[in-house]
Amino acid sequence: MDKEIETLLQKxxxxxxxxxxxxxxxxxxxxxxLMALLFGxxxxxxxxxxxxxxxxxxxxxxxxxxxxxxxxAGLIVYFHGGGWVIGTVAGYHPMTATLxxxxxxxxxxxxxxxxxxxxFPAPVEDAMAALRWAAEQGAEAIGIAPxxxxxxxxxxxxxxATVASRRHNEGASKRKVDLQVLAYPxxxxxxxxxxxxxxxxxxxxxxxxxxxxxxxYLPDASGRxxxxxxxxxxxxxxxxxxxxxxxxxxxxxxxxxxxxGEKLRQAGVPVEVVRCEGLLHGFLAMINYAPSxxxxxxxxxxxxxxxxxxxxxxxxxxxxxVAKGTARVAAP
Length: 332
Fold this sequence. Notes:
Layout: H1 3-15, H2 25-30, H3 34-38, E1 47-54, E2 60-67, E3 75-79, H4 93-103, E4 106-110, H5 122-142, E5 149-154, H6 156-170, E6 179-183, H7 194-198, H8 207-217, E7 242-250, H9 254-266, E8 271-280, H10 291-308, E9 324-329
Parallel strand pairs: 3-4, 3-5, 5-6, 6-7, 7-8, 8-9
Antiparallel strand pairs: 1-2, 2-4
């Protein structure tokens, strides 16, 4: 574990903050997110535009489009984390702006509806609407046909990214999702996996926190086996795009993310699973704070570059894309 991670855990312990599971959604949203505390300032991007797209039940879905160059290599549709309860496009702005610049891709960041006001399946419907817009209107919006369409998300956003990309690719759209990038995704609802038990307390995300998030997103526990809520329950994943799945070594969600990667592999989907040892849930907020988190982000940039055919812009030696199998390795 990086010394920066050790310092962060100590500071969190000393802060004695109210955990999510003892908060209301309003109080949780009012507190500072990890992104604001650790990431740093957002880089400038050539063009940033806020607008809305049509989603279910007449909802005007807010999105933010980043276009880093005259000819973006691809289009990434990004779904932020926050347990389906917290998080915003504005709060993720430093990371999504960095993602656009580092990959050379346009990024569409999605302000999907949040629970408990808008529980399952509203966030899934918003995610599908965003991918549909990207497939049908993205080329016109960014000024060039993207060489690759990528669905990406972290935590609950990773859940939405993989569900929406599978359903999109199962549908009639001629423009399929080429790659899904899932950072420490929520893929199931089993709170008794080995990683849930080992990391139930003492890290940034706890077992009780995730139970609280699920209780807001899908209060009826009997409905959580729906594959659009828990993608591990999906019987046929063969339509899913190629995947890069990154798990954090010290995260209750680690085992379900790795199990999902294995299930994708069994379905014949090209997939690479990277366990980032020593890292915590939420490490995308730490890429400018902890060296190991920065190297994990390099892996994401390299996989996207491999898919778009663009030059790797990380400066890192490892330019491995998504392999036809599952590998569990630590981020270097």
